Amino acid permease/ SLC12A domain-containing protein
Amino acid sequence: MSDDEESQTPSAEKKASLEPTISVNVGESDNLGSLHQSFTPRQVHVISLGYNTDSGLFIGTGKALANGGPGNMILAYLAVCLGVWAHLQTLAEITIAFPTSGNYIDYADRWVDPALAFGAGLAEWLGWTAVFVSEGTFFVVLVDYSAKGSVPEAVLLSIFVAICLVVFSVPNQYFAWLQYIGSLVKVFLFIFNTLISLALIGGAGPSGSVTDGSVWTKRMD
């Protein structure tokens, strides 16, 4: 081969440089999902705390406490927390190793098949739809407790749907602040309820009775 032919033949390095590559070793993220982050880190942290303090914690705790008792509630809570911790730890390791700007279902598209990612996305949508319905039920229960049944449930559900439509229709930056404020309210409400519960257990209630350990083994019918 002549010198002219060698000069016209691209080297292996030139060929490799023309190939598209994705680097995730220097903090770069894949283009999967292509979502733009508009929430600040402070908002993300507070919203994460607020999402862990769901309305079911305030409404469903009473029934679970009456049926199972404090001991069973602690065991169930520890079991659920262990499963959630293992799941989030695994997801965090994957996200650190392979950052993405989209949802975690992008990993199903990347490593398995786009059909699995579609199914995971549909399942997530169905799950959040069920959460929306349960939140509407909680809203009716809370308001109806104070209204003493004077407001029809259909009216309360209509108000709840209207509020949700307004909240989810605002621009992203305003939505972030609404979620931020709502999460702060839930966190402070959780702390307030915890302190009040401890005070009532210690005898600060109207009757002044101190709660002993009988509720650990006796049903509160």
Q: What stands out?
A: Residues 9-30 have pLDDT under 50 and may be disordered. Residues 3 and 203 are 97 Å apart (CA to CA).
